[in-house]
């Protein structure tokens, strides 16, 4: 068979030819600029670039996740809603590969946003607040690591959580075949999930430990491998990763199974 | 390609059956589509045309039976079978936020060997050259239909499936499409499978028509075209001043049937002239001669009982 990458290119074309995508990338850019400039104006010189980068990343990575979830939830369902799925599936490609091309382009979109956020928060804050040396960085992050390296690890952990939640949205997109429902439900789970899980985690049941939303924020392990956040005592990075891996496999299996089996009656 | 060696019907539907829930929507449909023909698929609303087409292109699973395209089963060798198919299923839905050209580019990347010249060629062919770089959301229904045809023929399929392709086309567009489909069948040897309930339309376009009702195939019949008309027998009305005398006169050679204002005969083309001469020689006045062939529409309504949607 010929080039699978052409399928990914098609998906990218459909993604980046939409105004929506550019509004999302524009919003990330504008918010970084806005937050940094406001901080520059109100602060009296005691703010360093690392703490700004860290705060902005914490807030705006949530936005990156939301944007990617919206695009994922619309990815398959949107083709069903508009009926374009029919012309897409009558090509000499298996449904699995078409689905894979969509999934890859979504992860690439998440990566593009994360890279944009990383570069912007570093460059903008350095220009506004100057380059804080290693002592400043050490104070901010409480770690001896190179600050850019530390941020990279932070992004990596965040990205793992993002992959899981995006895969869940992608699954909902395939199951419901309606963009509105898939987007709504995904956002609800993304925003409400951690709240509900937080409440449940106060209960003393064994199964509570296996709730997905308790494990999505892996950055809580950055101080050391023991959890410091809401996951509660006794949780380790290894345990969280195992739980996430199981969810991931289930999401992927269901998505591909359903997409391959479904009659297309759009 | 391996296709050159394959001979036999391009497409075979074998006992194609679809059951959804407890309803049998398509019931053991068996049909061979020969090469180089425009094959009509006629049926009232809800008779199962679109469902059949969905199964032929692998969008719906078959409950039973199989569809073989150029020797490949759509069930077990989907990619090989679909490679030779171009289709529009129901409405030609395209990506509205892309231009017409970007839509074609999108589909062209999914089948090997489609050059940019080929894309330009089909754009020209469907008459969209001046609008191809506009977003599809600005297109009229007919323009979308044309773009749909373009994506279906772009990879030179050997089976072209069109579900109600004239929907939304203006008379000139319908005529162009009709001529083009006949040309595709005759010159390029493509099998064209067209569904429609525009019956008169099918008569002009198709070599053969399969009629389906409530998911069952009820008839397959050939349709004559101009060239073959001479030899065929048709029902001809002679308008004359004295019908009774005309009947008596012709009784021995050509039995006729009395009709309003005249007599009808089942005869071929040459006999029409002969009867006319005899009537005139006998001193009758012939006011008019009309061929009364039942249109497919009449036959169709007769067959399906002109009934409502089931
Ligand atoms: N997904 C589905 N679930 C249940 N029934 C269905 C489904 N799709 C179609 N049907 C039923 O199958 C029958 C055939 O529908 P189909 O769309 O194939 O008809 P059609 O011949 O294309 O009609 P039309 O001329 O209106 O386009 C209809 O009675 C319809 O209600
Ligand atoms: Mg239909």
UniProtKB/TrEMBL annotation, chain A:
* Top-level lineage group: Bacteria
Q: Which UniProt keywords apply?
A: Membrane, Transmembrane, Transmembrane helix
Would the keyword Transport turn up in this protein's UniProt record?
no
Provide the transmembrane region boundaries: 21-39, 59-82, 103-132, 152-175, 187-208, 237-259
Pfam hit, one: ABC2_membrane_4
Q: What is this protein's record name?
A: ABC transporter permease
Which species is this record about? Paenibacillus mendelii
TrEMBL record, chain B:
The answer to whether the entry has keyword Transport is yes
What InterPro entries does the record tag this protein with?
A: AAA+_ATPase, ABC_transporter-like_ATP-bd, ABC_transporter-like_CS, P-loop_NTPase
Enumerate the SMART domains for this protein.
AAA
Residue ranges annotated for the ABC transporter domain, each copy included: 11-239
A Gene Ontology molecular function term for this protein is: ATP binding
Annotated coiled-coil positions are none
Keyword terms, alphabetized: ATP-binding, Nucleotide-binding, Transport
Q: Does this UniProt record's set of keywords contain Cell wall biogenesis/degradation?
A: no
The record ties this protein, via Pfam families, to: ABC_tran
Gene3D superfamilies assigned to the protein according to its UniProt record, in alphabetical order = P-loop containing nucleotide triphosphate hydrolases
Of which family is this protein a member? Belongs to the ABC transporter superfamily.
The name of this protein is ABC transporter ATP-binding protein
From which source organism is this entry?
Paenibacillus mendelii
């Amino acid at each position: 068979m010929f080039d699978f990458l052409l399928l990914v290119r098609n998906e990218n074309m459909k993604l980046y030819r939409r105004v929506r995508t550019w509004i999302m990338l524009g919003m990330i850019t504008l918010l970084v600029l806005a937050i940094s400039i406001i901080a520059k104006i109100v602060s009296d010189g005691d703010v360093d670039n690392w703490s700004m980068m860290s705060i902005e990343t914490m807030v705006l990575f949530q936005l990156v996740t939301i944007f990617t979830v919206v695009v994922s939830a619309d990815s398959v369902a949107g083709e069903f809603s508009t009926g374009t799925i029919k012309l897409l599936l009558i090509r000499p490609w298996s449904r699995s590969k078409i689905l894979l091309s969509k999934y890859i382009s979504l992860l690439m979109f998440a990566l593009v946003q994360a890279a944009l956020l990383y570069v912007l928060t570093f460059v903008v804050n350095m220009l506004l607040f100057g380059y804080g040396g290693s002592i400043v960085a050490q104070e901010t992050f409480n770690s001896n690591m190179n600050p850019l390296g530390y941020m990279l690890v932070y992004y990596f952990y965040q990205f793992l959580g993002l992959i899981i939640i995006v895969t869940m949205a992608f699954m909902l997109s395939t199951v419901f075949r309606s963009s509105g429902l898939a987007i709504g439900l995904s956002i609800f789970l993304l925003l409400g999930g951690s709240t509900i899980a937080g409440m449940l985690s106060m209960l003393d049941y064994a199964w509570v430990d296996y709730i997905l939303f308790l494990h999505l924020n892996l950055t809580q392990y950055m101080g050391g491998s023991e959890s410091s956040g809401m996951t509660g005592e006794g949780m380790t990075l290894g345990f969280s990763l195992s739980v996430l891996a199981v969810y991931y496999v289930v999401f992927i299996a269901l998505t591909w199974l359903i997409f391959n089996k479904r009659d297309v009656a759009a | 390609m391996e296709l050159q060696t394959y001979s036999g019907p391009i497409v075979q539907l074998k006992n194609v059956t679809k059951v959804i829930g407890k309803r049998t929507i398509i019931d053991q449909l068996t049909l061979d589509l020969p090469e180089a023909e425009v094959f009509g698929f006629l049926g009232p609303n809800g008779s199962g045309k679109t469902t059949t087409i969905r199964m032929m292109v692998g969008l719906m699973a078959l409950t039973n039976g199989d569809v073989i395209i150029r020797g490949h089963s759509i069930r077990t060798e989907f990619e090989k079978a679909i490679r030779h198919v171009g289709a529009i299923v129901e409405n030609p839905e395209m990506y509205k936020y892309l231009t017409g050209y970007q839509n074609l580019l999108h589909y062209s990347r999914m089948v090997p060997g489609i050059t940019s010249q080929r894309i330009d060629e089909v754009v020209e062919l469907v008459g969209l050259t001046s609008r191809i770089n506009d977003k599809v959301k600005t297109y009229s229904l007919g323009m979308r239909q044309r773009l749909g045809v373009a994506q279906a023929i772009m990879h030179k399929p050997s089976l072209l499936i069109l579900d109600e392709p004239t929907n939304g086309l203006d008379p000139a567009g319908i005529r162009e499409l009709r001529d083009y489909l006949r040309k595709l069948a005759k010159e390029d040897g493509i099998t064209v499978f067209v569904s429609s309930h525009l019956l008169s339309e099918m008569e002009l376009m198709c070599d053969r028509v399969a009629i389906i009702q409530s998911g069952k195939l009820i008839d397959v019949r050939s349709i004559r075209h101009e060239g073959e008309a001479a030899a065929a027998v048709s029902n001809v009305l002679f308008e004359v001043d004295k019908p009774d005398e005309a009947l008596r006169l012709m009784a021995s050679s050509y039995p006729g049937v009395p009709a309003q204002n005249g007599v009808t005969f089942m005869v071929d083309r040459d006999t029409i002239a002969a009867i006319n001469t005899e009537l005139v020689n006998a001193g009758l006045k012939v006011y008019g001669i009309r061929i009364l062939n039942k249109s497919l529409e009449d036959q169709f309504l007769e067959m399906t009982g002109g009934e409502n949607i089931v």
